[in-house]
Specification:
This protein has helices spanning 15-26, 60-66, 83-88, 90-95, 97-110, 151-169, 195-209, 229-240, 260-271, 295-301, 309-328, and strands at 7-10, 32-36, 51-54, 72-75, 114-120, 172-178, 181-182, 213-217, 223-225, 227-228, 250-252, 257-259, 276-280. It is α/β, with parallel strands linked by helices.
Length: 336
């Protein structure tokens, strides 16, 4: 890639897309186009010198406009959120298939060199995730298919689209399966936030109110791994530019597992507080256990995400605390 080649990032108004824009800008790339359906004033991050387009990429004509002249296209656009959102709004999650369908075709027709699709660990067979003692999920565990309803199936089918564009048309595509990306500049309230941000916010709210209690969805035994945003954007870059990973889905996540209960304890330690725990057993809680098997990424890239959860949560907590104070002061903050 030349520094002046056009990079198009779909979903640039959101958490990961906005962070990827900033990552490439800091790498010295001078021709970046961000696209999102949110009004530009509502984008989570804005990077100086980057072209910003407000377009709904679920519409074919908008996808064509978005990728004009592109050398590389990164699809981070999706209607999604934490478990509370993806269990309640499955149809909206499924509609994101329109974005990838139109965008990969438009990128191919525009003569782009390569295309990146952001998939998810939600593609994995849910029958393998019924116990907190889950064995880490390797890439082949997506089949036989029994993905998370709605969101997971959209991601799995879109993966297949990308693989067939390489097999049938020779269009270079790359696919990463994200495992719970978190960090600053992500949604932290409003219903779409994921567990790390939600727990950090609840702890901050408890400290601020003086009511030292926290509501936990489920019984807290659910196990996950969480990948820090800086590792995510670095991994996207490495995966996109590996000739050994063309049309080959790969995990992008941390191997560091933690239960929701232990995540709450970690945030309590960071905040210097201990809270009474109230368990909402009928709340959405997802699968019992999920973790990333990083054998393949270490083999191919000689690398894996390495930011510890403690380090990442300290940074995330600090940023959400600033957002919380800004919101109380009536300033604009990131929402859903």
């Amino acid at each position: 890639m030349k520094k002046e080649d056009l990079i198009v990032i779909a979903g640039a108004g959101g958490f990961i897309g906005g962070s990827l824009v900033k990552y490439f800008y800091n790498q010295g790339f001078t021709n970046i186009r961000g696209v999102d359906r949110k009004p530009v004033a509502e984008w989570y991050q804005r990077t100086s010198g980057v072209e910003c387009l407000c377009l709904d990429l679920g519409e074919k004509e908008n996808a064509i406009r978005a990728v004009e002249g592109a050398a590389e296209v990164y699809n981070l656009a999706a209607d999604m959120g934490g478990m509370g959102f993806i269990e309640k709004y499955r149809i909206e999650c499924l509609r994101s298939i329109l974005v990838n369908t139109h965008l990969v075709e438009a990128a191919y027709r525009a003569g782009a060199e390569r295309y990146f699709f952001s998939s998810s660990a939600c593609v994995y067979n849910t029958d393998l995730q019924k116990s907190p003692d889950v064995i880490a999920l390797k890439e082949s565990d997506a089949y036989p298919a029994m993905a998370e309803r709605g969101y997971g199936w959209e991601k799995l089918i879109s993966e297949m689209f990308c693989q067939e564009y390489w097999a049938e048309r020779g269009f270079e595509t790359h696919i990463a399966r994200f495992h719970n990306i978190y960090g600053p500049h992500g949604t932290w309230f409003g219903g779409r936030e994921k567990a790390p941000a939600a727990i950090a916010r609840k702890v901050i709210e408890a400290k601020d109110s003086g009511v030292h209690e926290i509501e936990i969805w489920g019984d807290g035994s659910q196990v996950r791994s969480f990948c820090y945003i800086d590792d995510c954007v670095k991994g996207i870059d490495m995966i996109m530019h590996s000739k050994n990973l063309i049309a080959t889905p790969i995990n992008l996540g941390s191997h560091e597992m933690i239960s929701v209960n232990d995540l709450v304890s970690l945030v309590e330690t960071i905040a210097g507080v201990t809270l009474k725990r109230n368990y909402k057993l009928d709340a959405p809680k997802g699968v019992a256990g999920r973790n990333s098997d990083n054998t393949f990424i270490k083999e191919v890239l000689k690398w894996e995400p390495d930011t510890t959860l403690r380090t990442g949560m300290e940074k995330t907590y600090g940023w959400i605390n600033e957002q919380f104070d800004d919101r109380k002061a009536g300033k604009r903050v990131i929402t859903d």
